[in-house]
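Dear colleague,

Thank you for sharing your sequence with our group. We've completed the structure prediction you requested, and as agreed, I am returning the results in plain text so they can be pasted directly into your records. Please verify that the sequence below matches your submission; if there's any discrepancy, let me know and we will rerun it promptly.
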Amino acid sequence: MKKEIIETKHKDIYYCDECNHEAIASYRCLICKKDLCEEHVQYDTRDDSDYPGKYCKRCWEIGKPFRQKQDEALVKFNSIYEYLILNWKNECLKND
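Please find the predicted structure tokens below.
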């Protein structure tokens, strides 16, 4: 006995909102939610994780002054954090 089975597979196809070309994978801008192809995606170079943030070039460019301020704030935060750790250690050693 022969039985014929027809299977249907679902596949999402993404098109870049910038150039309208089919994208191999879905890269979506974290801010404006545009779908992007590899040519039009901008990765957050400060993010060294396996899945860095992705942005369209327009949102990335607009974010330049904000990223600079974020970096400055992070330097200040790290400095204060290290200062507090050092004071904590000194306080512990002083009471031995």
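Summary note from our side: The radius of gyration is 24 Å.

Kind regards,
the structure core
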